[in-house]
Structure formats: structure tokens, C-alpha cells
Amino acid sequence: MIEIPARRGKAARLLQGQSVKIVNTYGQQVVDTWAFNLAEIGEFMSMEHTRIAIGRIIPVIGDALVTNRRRSILRLVEDTSGGIHDTLIAACDRWRYELLGCATYHDNCSDNLAAALHEFGLVPPETPSPLNLFMNIPIVDGNRIDVLPPVSTPGSFVTLRAEMDCLVAFSACPQDMVPINGAAMMPTAAHFEIIG
Amino acid sequence: MIEIPARRGKAARLLQGQSVKIVNTYGQQVVDTWAFNLAEIGEFMSMEHTRIAIGRIIPVIGDALVTNRRRSILRLVEDTSGGIHDTLIAACDRWRYELLGCATYHDNCSDNLAAALHEFGLVPPETPSPLNLFMNIPIVDGNRIDVLPPVSTPGSFVTLRAEMDCLVAFSACPQDMVPINGAAMMPTAAHFEIIG
Predict the structure, then answer these.
(1) What gap in Å lies between CA A65 and CA B67, rounded to an integer?
(2) Taking the CB of residue A164, how many other CB atoms lie within 10 A of it?
(3) What pLDDT digit, counting tens, does each position of B80-89 carry?
């Protein structure tokens, strides 16, 4: 198992047919997730293209997650976490924490993505809107959104199968100013495993 | 009034404090809408940042639409259209029409954005997920999305006030293969006016 350290990011190559199992080790950690076409980093998993492709806000087992060129890049094949994830909300960034009142630098998922890709000598063309695994953003009355702790439990997991060779990247979200990583507001590590 | 020709895009400079009134001239036309910081095209209106800023999927009168740096760029100040717009769905592109079975080139909002900005000598850094004015994508049971004709009526409009100097761009969506531009699936022109 590879660690996604608390408040940090980590990337890995995933070849077509391989899967990645993302484990919510301590149960309440949101994991921002991205996938880039290994052959062309300008093609990447896109939430706004995926929603219309699957006809849903939140993917379910069997759904393909598609790129900004509308090609399948990952498929959700297992989910023991309760099935609550988010596709609506941007990755946190330094501006998010400044607006929350943080006067000094705060770790954030956007910088974690950049750092994780930097280990592969790559620069993300932007911070794509992530698949926020385990993140609980219910839509109330068809419009209002709420920010709640995850419903996932320790050791629960999601498995994503690669539909093309890709670079996947994860960030163990460092958000500790709202209860998105649990009521304790204490970000933790998570883990992943490449299968196949 | 400036025309957004049927199936085409059009951009305009909008200075801080000026407003743009977007009129649904024939009543059933979706208008994909973007805004870029005039001083730095890499900063642009972002739906994934706006949703968490306003706590809603669909902006209402008074809401600020924010950029990928979480700064207000436009504010919704008037809306006579029934208040149904979309922030969830990507702009259509050639891949969308290929998947719908179109064997030849089909006009699309992504290319319309690029053409509209080209008139200003600019290249969009990407196709940001647009504010789809008048587009009716209800969320059913908190998860499933539907694709319905607009609820807007002929001559109804939305007014957006600039919170920073920006370049706004519009596309009269050329979608004629699903009933997103009305049950007749007949894209039309729309119009806009700069005020102030």
C-alpha cells in the first residue's frame, strides 16, 4: 500500500486495465482525485463532462469517468464507502484558506496536485475540478448544497479501473477549518494500492 | 443590442461597474456564458468555485460569480427568465456531437468561444465550464440529472454586473440533437446589451 500522507499529494502511473484501490484508512478523510492521459496531459478526467455522460452528480459502480474529450479514463468498479462522493466543488487552494481567515500559508489540494505531478516531471495544465472521493456535499431541495462529514468508515475503499494509460493523482485534503474531513477537523493519511 | 447569431459566439469587453443584459429573444435559447479577467486571461469565471462560494448549484439575484482565484467577476443583478440556469454541464464540443452520432462537423459552443475570443486576438487557456444561462438541468432525488427545455419566455433576460474589468463571451448553443434549446430543437439567435 502506498501512503498519501496527511495533508499531502501523491501520483502514480496506471496502465489500461490496471486498477487503483483508494482506502479511507481512518474513515473520515476526503481524497481529491485526478487522472491525466499519460500520452497527453492536456486530456484529463473532467467532472463537467462526466456528469452529462452518466446522467448523475455522483458516479455509481459501473460508471465511466470521462475526460475533457469525452473518452472514458477511469471506471468505478468497487465502492464500500457508502457511495457518497463529490463532483461539484473545486479543489481547495491558497485563496480558499485566505477567505476562511488563514493569515499564513495553508497546505491545499491544488498545490498538492502540482507537487505530486512534479515528481513525474510534469506540470498540470490547470487544476481540473477533482473527483472528491468520500466528500459529502448533499444537494438539498435540488439547489442548495451542504458541507457535511464523510459517511465512509475506517478501511472502506473505492476501486477505479483505468480505461486508458493514465497518471492518477491524489491529495489527502488538508482542510481543517470546516468539518469536511470529519467533525474532528483533523486531516489524516489515506492509502492506495495498484492492482493488476 | 448586439446579436449573438444562431449557432455562433460573440464576446465583448465589460468594465467594472458596467452590466450586460442577455436577452432570450425567442425564449428557448440556451446561452453559454464565460468571463475572463481582462488583465489576465488565466483567471476566469469558474462554476466549481462559484458553487461553494454561493452554497447553491444555481445562482440567484445578488449572488457573485467567482473566478478560479475565488474573486468576484460578475454579479447576477436581474433575472426575469424564471431563474433556471445550469452550472453543471460542460460546453458542447465536437466530441459531444460525434457521440450523438453526427458524422460531419457540428457547430459547438467550445469552438464558438474560441472564435469569439479570436476577434480580440486572444486564445482561451481552456474551455472553462460555462454558466449556461436559461439551460434547464434539474437535479432529481439529489443525484440524477435531467435535460429539459428552458422555462424562459421570449424577451426575458438576465443582467450581470462586472465586478472587475473582464471579457465576457457568449454562445447561442447550436445543440439541435437534444431538446435543450426547446422541444422544437431549433437553435435561434439571442441578444445582449452593455449598460453603463
Answers:
(1) 25
(2) 18
(3) 999 999 999 9
Q: Report the pLDDT value the prediction gives residue A86, as an integer from 0 to 100.
A: 98
Is the ipTM of this structure higher than 0.90?
A: yes
Which residues on adjacent β-strands are paired with residue B11?
B169
**Distance of alpha carbon A33 from alpha carbon A16, whole angstroms:** 17
* Interchain CB distance below 8 Å, B90 and A68: yes
The secondary structure element, H or E, covering residue B190 is strand B190-195
CB contact set of A141 (below 8 Å; sequence gap of 6+): none
Taking CB atoms and an 8 Å cutoff, what residues of chain A touch B90? 46, 48-49, 52, 68
pLDDT of residue A121: 97
Full-model pTM: 0.97
Q: What is the mean pLDDT of residues B11-40?
A: 98
A142 touches B: beta carbon within 8 Å:
yes
DSSP 3-state percent helix, strand, coil across chain A (nearest 5) = 15, 35, 50
Spatial neighbors of B9 by CB under 8 A, at least 6 apart, are B109, B112, B113, B115, B116, B169, B170, B171, B172
Q: Are the CB atoms for A10 and A113 separated by under 8 Å?
A: no
Region B51-77: mean pLDDT is 98
AA letter at B40? E
- Which candidate, A10, A1, A2, places its Cα nearest to that of A173? A10
pLDDT of res. A53:
98
